[in-house]
Design a protein that fits this description.
Blueprint: H1 2-32, E1 39-45, E2 48-55, E3 58-63, H2 78-93, H3 102-107
Antiparallel strand pairs: 1-2, 2-3
């Protein structure tokens, strides 16, 4: 009788260990999955184009003017706005400052 109880006890603890291992693997998988992508969108302004960068429907950045230039001017085209938005997202994904420099604008061939 004692042997049967010991055997049942071992099977019980073996099952618990398997379940715990499965839960740990699941938690590791969930924690390592890629975080949600940032979304970009363009919008028209009275004088041109701007862009937004959002995550989970929350706007993180709304840029209606070209950064780092002395004039208050929107992007001339939707394509220009989206090029800069993509650069900012790339920087954010690399965990570096999302600021845009004049050199960045020149390299992207943004019409100033």
């Amino acid at each position: 009788m004692t042997m049967i109880i010991n055997l049942k006890n071992k099977i019980f603890w073996s099952t618990i260990q398997k379940i715990l291992l499965l839960v740990l693997v699941f938690c590791a998988f969930v924690s390592c999955t890629k975080k949600e992508q940032l979304q970009i969108a363009s919008f028209q302004t009275p004088t041109g184009w701007g862009y937004t960068i959002s995550n989970d429907s929350k706007i993180l950045i709304k840029q209606s003017i070209i950064p780092v230039i002395s004039q208050v001017k929107s992007f001339d085209s939707e394509n220009d706005a989206l090029k800069v938005a993509n650069l900012v997202v790339k920087k954010l994904n690399q965990n570096i400052s999302p600021s845009v420099t004049k050199k960045d604008l020149i390299l992207l061939k943004i019409k100033l």
